[in-house]
Amino acid sequence: MDLLFTILCAVIVIGFLVFIHEGGHYLAARVFGVRVTEFMLGLPGPNVGFTKGDTKFGVTAVPLGGYARVCGMEAGEMQPHLKEVLAALYRRGTAEMEDIAADCGITDDEAYEALEELTEWGSCNGPTKRDPYNTYRAREVTPSKRQVRAALAAGEEAPAAYALGEARPVDDAQALFDAEYRQQYRSLPFWKRSVILVAGVAVNLLFAIVAFVVLFSVIGFDVQNTQTGEVFHYNATPWQSIEVGFSYIGMVIQAVAGLFNPATAAQTVSDSTSIVGIAVLSKQAVEQGLFMALQFMAMISVSLGIMNLIPIPPLDGGRFVVEVFQKATRKVVSPKAMGYLSMAGMALFLGFFAIMLNQDIQNLIAGTGVFGPSAGA
Question: Can you give the pLDDT at residue 373?
Answer without folding.
Answer: 59
